[in-house]
Amino acid sequence: MSTDRFTTPFERPRRLRTTPAMRKMVRETRVHPSQLVLPAFIRDGIDSPVEISSMPGQYQHTEKSLRELARRCVDAGIGGIDLFGVPLEEDKDPQGSVAWAKDGVLNRGLQAVRDEVGDALVIIADTCLDEFTSHGHCGVLTDEGTVDNDATLELYAMQAVSQARAGAHVVSPSGMMDGQVRVIREALDDEGFEDVAILAYSAKYASAFFGPFREAVGSGLKGDRKTYQQDPANRREGVREALLDLAEGADMVMVKPAGYYLDVLSDVATVSEVPVAAYQVSGEYAMIEAAAANGWLDRERVVQESVTGIVRAGADIVLTYFALDEALLA
Ligand code: PBG
């Protein structure tokens, strides 16, 4: 027998996997409820919540059911709620002007949630026009039909200020217009909302995984968002977008979608001096729910694993439709 084996014994990483207690002790990544944010929808003109068929378990809420949901978020100890509005069809116009109306559906939802839970939850507003425009794009259109970056900025500024007024702690520009963070920061400061934070959707990709969300908000979009959202093939550009948002005054930056963009998330987490969020989007949710409903995946374990992977890659905050799920709170 060679003595080599004794002078240079091989390593045994398995020692740290022997018991559940051991595995738990040496675990590198822990998902805590306080870092989870639940995206939620409030819809105008309905009497009771409407389930979103492509997102089983998720609803378009009435003001009343939204208040109850916010309460559940507080009781579960999660970090925040991110609100999206679904207006009446007849309230949509080419500018999306109901987005900044004081009594617009999203602003009413923000007010109701702030009234219900106060500061017990971080209340985040989606700052974008796509739910409110008749054409479904995230900004106003030029005569040629392209999305007009600079003309859209002043509308975002009005929307953000109206959301701060309605009670949002955080506004979150998600429209991928260049310069949106700076214009919103200036508008908020001018109106005395220096303490309202900006969560910038920095690296947001033109993703097919947003599919179910379009049903959730009753989007009228024809065509795509490829002239403003990023090409899924681009990694370096995600870092560039994040650095620009940081320079413009973002308080937090985001990568979206999450699970298929962990490389971008990791890159952004490496350079960011502010908290980094990742959004596990509607399609990521729908795929897991569909497979679980067929008995093809162990739902609870996949929910845990998918969110753990996102945190392991560098997310401090995870926006996920699973935020209130037992799998993450247990
Ligand atoms: C745009 C917006 C979208 C999502 C969040 N904000 C849709 C889009 O860009 O087309 C998608 C979220 C999801 O898929 O869960 N306001």
Structure write-up:
The structure is a single chain. The protein has 330 residues and is of the alpha/beta class. The protein has a single domain, classed as TIM Barrel (Alpha-Beta Barrel). Helix content is 38%, strand content 16%. It has helices at 4-7, 20-25, 63-76, 105-117, 149-166, 180-190, 211-216, 236-248, 262-271, 282-293, 299-312, 326-329, and strands spanning 36-43, 50-51, 59-61, 80-86, 122-127, 170-173, 197-204, 252-256, 276-280, 317-320. An eight-stranded parallel barrel has the order 1-4-5-6-7-8-9-10, surrounded by eight helices. β6 (170-173), α6 (180-190) and β7 (197-204) form a beta-alpha-beta unit. The longest helix is centred in the middle third of the chain and has 18 residues, at 149-166. The protein starts with a helix and ends with a helix. The mean pLDDT is 96. It binds ligand PBG. Ligand PBG binds at residues 126, 128, 130, 138, 174, 210, 213, 225, 281-282.
Defining key terms:
330 residues, binds ligand PBG, TIM Barrel, 8-stranded parallel β-barrel, 38% helix, alpha/beta
Question: Topology of this structure?
Answer:
Layout: H1 4-7, H2 20-25, E1 36-43, E2 50-51, E3 59-61, H3 63-76, E4 80-86, H4 105-117, E5 122-127, H5 149-166, E6 170-173, H6 180-190, E7 197-204, H7 211-216, H8 236-248, E8 252-256, H9 262-271, E9 276-280, H10 282-293, H11 299-312, E10 317-320, H12 326-329
Parallel strand pairs: 1-3, 1-4, 1-10, 4-5, 5-6, 6-7, 7-8, 8-9, 9-10
Antiparallel strand pairs: 2-3
Helix pairs in contact: 3-4, 5-6, 8-9
This protein binds ligand PBG.
